[in-house]
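Hey L., structure's done. Input below.
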Amino acid sequence: MSTPISSNSQISQKETTSATKNKGGLEGIVAATTAISKVEGEIGRLIYRGYNIHDLARTTIFEEIVHLLWFGHLPNKRELEQLQERFATERTIPENVMVTLRSLPASTEPMDALRTAVSAWGAVAIQGKPTIDQAIALTARFPLFLAAFDRLRRGLEPLESKPELGHAANYLYLLTGEIPSEEHVKGLNAYLVLLADHGMNASTFTARIVASTESDISSSIVAAIGALKGPLHGGAPSKVQDMLREIGTLEKADAWIREAVSTGKKLMGFGHRVYKTTDPRAEELREMARLADANGFVFTRGVEELAIAILEELKPGRRLYTNVEYYSAALMASVGLKGDLFTPTFAVSRVAGWSAHVLEQINNNRLIRPEAEYTGPTDLAFKPLNER
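Output:
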């Protein structure tokens, strides 16, 4: 396989310190340079290594996207076969990780189980500087760790992977024990392609910070999983389902949405920190959800249209549109995934981007160390303990 491509420049110290004050969240601050992906929020466009996400979502499988993110170009047939062979070879769970997974209570959140499994695997499998081989090994195992835990918590034994199945199909097989339908594989593949990377989001930034300290790839990915778990980042897709169940019917939707917005309740699946129009990933997932469940789509789409109109009416100028979470919930439910597996499945995709960013960071590294504006007191008089 080809040699990974790295970003050819690291942001200068002058640039990183030029904006010393910020309203919070580092919004608008450029913290790194990258050649991996570009998010254009004003026009709703997402680019992977120069390719528009709409073209990739409709025509590629996840393994092609992984190759693109890691090596800088889409694979030819032989390169794709080589990567698929490597994935198949890496589809094993070491004994220490299986022991760890078996020890977890059935009530453990799958994101916590995934984080724990990656940490346990890294403790015995990772040494030295992050490499492309380590990235392959990690990405190949994410579905195995999740599926093994899910089966164990249901009182079932984990299954052996089928080397003839692709990444998405093998994941579904390991969860269910049945060869998935072509329709389900296509839907999950599209989801994995769409979520593989997304600029300098919170979890990717976290992974790059850890990598910048010259820590190992497992530590970087464990930290990224922790960031993705948060409901303000990746932890909300299943809550879209909860919201839709609470709304109940399209006839009740208008009143429900108006009351929710008027009382400050968050509409799950609407609004994005970057996109000021419809998330391009949501556009692709919308079509996949329509094909997967035509009857359910009428309700889901109806709620979406009402919500966008009401948000514009009650919050004019806020530009709150559908984000990736809204149709992620519908699509993942249609392929048979339980709600608490939605965010971990996000991680099954995003580990490709995380690892690509880790490799890019270390190839031209500078410790990421921003400043903070201190707002506390400075002239307090010290008193010994017995005088306080």
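The chain has two domains: 45-234+352-363, 237-334. The two ends are 67 Å apart (CA to CA).

-- N.
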